[in-house]
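Section 5.1 Outputs to date
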Amino acid sequence: MSVERKTSTIVSTVTGAVLCVLLIPVIIINLILIVGSYRNPDELPGVFGIKPAVVLSGSMEPAIRVGDMIFIHNTDTDLLKEGDVICYLSSGKAITHRIAGVTAGEEGEVRYVTRGDANNTEDRLPVTADQIQGIRKGGRIGGLGSMILFMQTTTGMILFIICPLLLFLLWDIWRRRRADQEEASHTAQLEAELAALKAERESKERKP
């Protein structure tokens, strides 16, 4: 194999690996969010007890910023306490706020008073256990949430999924055709050299 072909193979492998590293995790998270939201509209979609969530407001800044992707872990609501950051659903909207206090309802059920770190007042309604989707244990990916939301649009799917896959497919087809042409050229060169050697040998054999 020539140096040029080796270089082309290495470049192809590296390019494919980079595309996989960049696109596959984002695509998987996006699919989890889309499929899960249709299957269980009353719950945040997740896998292995971890639910990715997109931050849409600045109520928890500076710890969590708009457009961040955070990860919510399943938890036993009986273990929740003041200071924990929880994610809960309110009118179908996911909200991630800190527990400011734990109280009891009219029938003795536990309720959680929440407040965003950037807010001056507590949330208007206390949160019940069945609203809670999980607890945030830390960790965020800045800007990934905005990318995920954009990828769910038609334009985003074209730019981030369809176009890269088509470009990679076209580039791979071109690379394979070029490799075939180089192989054919190399084979033709070898055949020409063999024919020349054969002709030279026959010429020597014919000499007296």
